[in-house]
Write a structure and sequence with these properties.
This protein is mostly helical. Helix content is 67%, strand content 2%. The protein is built from 15 helices and two strands. The longest helix has 32 residues, at 101-132. The radius of gyration is 26 Å and the shape is flat. The protein starts with a helix and ends in a 6-residue tail after the last helix. The model is unreliable at 305-309 (pLDDT under 50).
Length: 309
Amino acid sequence: MNTIHITLVFLVAIYGILRWGYPRKAEIASGYLRYVLLGIAAFLILCPFVWLVCAVFKDKDVLMQYTFLPAVSDWSTKTLNFNNFRALFAGEDTVQGRVYFQEYVINSLFLASTATSINLFFASMGGYALSKYEFRGRQGIMAFMIGSMMFPSMLFLAPVYRMIFAFGWMDTYLALLVPGACSVFGMFLFRQSMTSVPDSLIEAARIDGASEFGIYFNIIMPLVRPITGAFCLITFLGSWNSFIGPQVFIQTQSKLTLPVVLNQYMGVYTQQYGVFLAGTLLAIIPPAVLFFALQKEFVSGLTSGGVKG
């Protein structure tokens, strides 16, 4: 029996003692079982992250030799070191010159932040128009929007590529930002959230002389802050993890994003597992920071329509 088996047997034995040793206090055993199951679930969820952190510090010669870390007696510069990070930040020679890993990080941050800002602006304005303005064809537009969400994005890759090539946007960030400047999902999300805002607030603002854009920016947007946080997080993650777009439209090495570059470490002729895992660990940090910063708004945004009122 290994350590895991012994631990499980010990936990089950404690539950048996609590359950049958104190039959009148069954709630103690139930509470213990609940916490044990939650602890096991947390352990299973955190295991891949712990393995990743351990793997990036292991030397390439012992990367597959240990599941997590070697025994303390085997710790040395030959088993644990920073060689993966040194190779990651050493840079690589390209036709345009030497390119460093931090340049790819900056590219991804720029594209993800810009795409999120553009999507937030247009999607929120579109949702506001669909929720608070009465005009001919609104229902048809809504039906068309919902219907368009049934088609996978890969279906439009060929026509979008031809359009980008005709506009001369190949190897530019316009090819990545313009086609996805407005999200149908985002417009529908904001439309559903803004429908719950009372029309009396808008009418009162108009009587006070507020402009339509002022109403949208100063009244509507603060009231839908939870859904804004959820949408920003979803959009940022989608842009940060985007692979097909940069792979197809970007040709200059120094303009590539993190997902494309990390994939190059696992090519046909190169198998740099340690460097790939080190880059993956660093690529997780910005989305994780954003998630913890917007965690409250994200949860509130997802549950804002769950209660009628």
